[in-house]
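Q: What structure does this chain adopt?
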Amino acid sequence: MHHHGYLWIGPKERFDDDAMRRPPHPGHPPAGSRPELLQRYREVAAGFPSSELPPLETAYWLVKPRSLIRGTWDDAKEAATWLGARVAEYAPRFASEREREITGLALLVNSVAGRLGSGSDVSLGFYLERPSYLSLAVVTCSPNRSNPELACPVP
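A:
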């Protein structure tokens, strides 16, 4: 088992585009569907795997381009440390004054390490100075517990 780290920062309105953050439905729309439905299905089917937008389900980072991986670790504690370092790095830009207080960072890192060590994925999100959003994720791989059918992006 190992872990991949992902980071996305961008405009909040892009993050809110839910259609591009979920995999396309496995079945093609039925014959006779409205043209706009067919076009939207094609856009999502082509765009989801290559989009840098964070997926709604954390495990689906594994189908995104390998170039989006910010780090890979065999040790859950190392992956959690990376996540904690990113939180500390961006904390001064958090929109919420309460979230800027990173005094609980050690607790967060320990909690994340425990979840990763048990095979779970971890995803965190923070509003930054308007109108940006920061998404951080660490995905457990080989296999992923929530979606074992998803292949590891790193051979």
